[in-house]
TrEMBL record:
Single GO MF descriptor: ATP binding
SUPFAM superfamilies in the record: P-loop containing nucleoside triphosphate hydrolases
Gene3D superfamilies: P-loop containing nucleotide triphosphate hydrolases
Keyword Nucleotide-binding attributed: yes
InterPro entries: AAA+_ATPase, ABC_tran_Xtn, ABC_transporter-like_ATP-bd, ABC_transporter-like_CS, ABCF_ATPase, P-loop_NTPase
Protein name: ABC transporter domain-containing protein
CDD domains xrefs: ABCF_EF-3
PANTHER family: ABC TRANSPORTER ATP-BINDING SUBUNIT, DRUG RESISTANCE ABC TRANSPORTER,ATP-BINDING PROTEIN
Domain ABC transporter: 2-254, 352-550
């Protein structure tokens, strides 16, 4: 279906892909993983032909394979209706019927023309698929939260999340033979995610997808392609993401043991070589006073000295060989964030109390009445459909928007920190150092020491916030909350757009936090690893989701 052979790509002097090779067979589903910015999207662009590689080749079997490609930031035609866009993606049945009729006439006049026969077969297949697509379109739009929007709605009237989901719907409904998906789970709630997983599991086409959703990768792929940010090469691992982790764990343990064994051998050889060198110097000297030595003694010790010197040289050559041709590199260290717990003060037992609370905007009620109490040390995750009121609840607790009714009050000694979905609280013109200095009275040395626990090392502290990656901003926001002594964290989609290592670091850091956490998260692996309680928004109410609490 797809063969990528020794593909390389550089931007200026910076290599992004080096001799990348892999195959994707019919029905196979591969997940492409790697750090943000390592070249995953670049590889998809090369496969689709929207970007030219410097070397290597990309071939398809058949050569005219139907490709569906969901890119990040897909630009949809603003002045087109939803119906027209999807009709174009699937193929207009009337236009396809005319094309089939035209090709049939040409084929009757040239029945031996194989190229014409292939074109006719493909047009006929597209027509059959288009005729079958009406019910699929309705179901797909419904499952992606677009079913209630009139089909004559212009695309420019949709929100950013709705546009992303419409783009995904268009790609899925185009019935591709090869499906390329770049972060397809963005802007999907839990039910949408589970539907997409089931859809991908059922389809027969080949799939290559980029995702940082670990449970999604566990459920839909049968192989992992790891793009290394240092070598810019790809390695393939059989199985899903959990299988990949296990293989990497075994590899790392073996590499570490091989490294330790080699270091022990090098130390042993160096000690032996040093001993042989000392012996060689003794033999070379013979008797202490050469004027009193006889001829036999001088010759005997000279010969023994040469033999011993050669033994030392052989040992040193073996050491050099171990350090070059047989060198085992020390496994790279995985840096982890470390939360400074000394700055977290303890609040009262009741952190947030909600009594008959109703939330929404203006006169629009989203959820209520809510009767819940958040207690010290709780780790609560909010789930539910997009637009059900999860972010609204956080803003109501923060008193950023008024409650529509009822009571929402903070407990004794609660210091609340809020991490907004789009990080509106950070000033893009300040450096990392200046940002943290604004929230505390520490010296520059103390601030830099504190920031190092959040992986801002050396000159990184002077980088303007506007130049930080999404993951770096999330780390900085968490550092600010902890530095202020916050003991209640309200987190609105804190790990959106983070790559897998960054998500794992954030989880690890947050797990060490001794205060209370209320978070809006759609990453199911994060929920599984971190949450102690899950609240689900449904039908205007909040209820415990026992699926996660078991």
């Amino acid at each position: 279906m797809l063969t990528v052979n020794k593909v390389s790509k550089s931007f200026g002097v910076k290599p992004v892909l080096v001799d990348v090779s892999f195959q994707l067979n019919e029905g196979q589903k591969l997940g492409l993983i790697g750090l943000n910015g390592c070249g995953k999207t670049t590889l998809l662009q090369i496969i689709t032909g929207s970007l030219k590689q410097d070397a290597g080749s990309v071939t398809f079997t058949p050569v005219d394979v139907r490709i569906g490609y969901l890119m990040q930031g897909l630009a949809l035609p603003d002045n087109t209706t939803i119906f027209s866009y999807l009709n174009h993606q699937q193929g207009d049945p009337l236009e396809l019927a005319r094309e089939v009729e035209k090709l049939a006439g040409q084929l009757s006049a040239r029945p031996q023309d194989k190229q014409l026969a292939d074109a006719y077969d493909q047009a006929l297949t597209r027509l059959q698929l288009a005729d079958e697509s009406t019910s699929d379109t309705e179901q797909t739009l419904s499952m992606l939260g677009l079913g209630d929007i009139p089909p004559d709605t212009l695309i420019r009237q949709l929100s950013g999340g709705q546009k992303t989901r419409l783009g995904l719907a268009g790609v899925l409904l185009s019935r591709p033979q090869l499906l390329l998906l770049d972060e397809p789970t963005n802007h999907l709630d839990m039910e949408m995610l589970e539907w997409l997983e089931e859809w991908i599991q059922k389809i027969r086409c080949a799939v290559l997808l980029i995702s940082h959703d670990r449970m999604f990768l566990d459920d839909v792929v049968d192989g992992i392609l790891e793009l290394d940010e240092h070598t810019h090469t790809i390695r393939e691992f059989a199985g899903n993401y959990s299988d990949y982790l296990q293989q990497k764990r075994v590899e790392r343990e073996k590499q570490w043991q091989d490294y330790v064994n080699q270091q022990d051998e090098i130390r042993r050889l160096r000690k032996a070589a040093e001993g042989v060198r000392d012996l060689a110097r003794y033999h070379k000297g013979g008797k202490t006073d050469p004027r009193k030595a006889d001829g036999f003694s001088i010759g005997f010790f000279a010969n023994r000295g040469k033999e011993t010197t050669q033994r030392a040289k052989n040992l040193e050559k073996r050491i050099e060989h171990l350090l070059t041709d047989e060198r085992v590199d020390k496994p790279s260290r995985t840096w982890q964030m470390k939360v400074d717990l000394d700055t977290v003060s303890e609040s009262g037992r009741d952190v947030v109390v909600m009594e008959n609370l109703s939330i929404g905007y203006g006169e629009r009620l989203l959820c209520g009445p809510i009767n819940q109490t958040i207690r010290y040390g709780d780790r609560i995750v909010l789930t539910g459909a997009n637009g059900c009121g999860k972010s609204t609840l956080l803003k109501t607790i923060m008193n950023q928007i008024p409650a529509l009714g009822g009571i929402c009050r903070m407990g004794t000694g609660v210091h609340c920190g809020y991490m907004a979905q789009e990080q509106e609280t950070l000033s893009v013109n300040l450096s990392v150092l200046q940002t943290l200095q604004q929230v505390g009275n520490q010296s520059e040395t103390e601030v830099r020491s504190f920031l190092s626990k959040y992986l801002f090392m050396g000159d990184d502290v002077f980088i303007p916030v506007g130049q930080l990656s999404y993951g770096e901003r999330v780390r900085l926001m968490l550092a600010c909350q902890v530095a202020q002594g916050c003991n209640l964290l309200l987190l609105d989609e804190p790990i959106n757009h983070l790559d897998i290592p960054s998500r794992e670091r954030f989880e690890q850091a947050l797990s060490e936090f001794q205060g209370t956490v209320l978070a809006v998260v759609h990453d199911r692996m994060f929920i599984k690893n971190f949450a102690r309680t899950v609240w689900k928004f449904a039908h205007g109410q909040i209820t415990p989701d026992y699926k996660w609490n078991l």
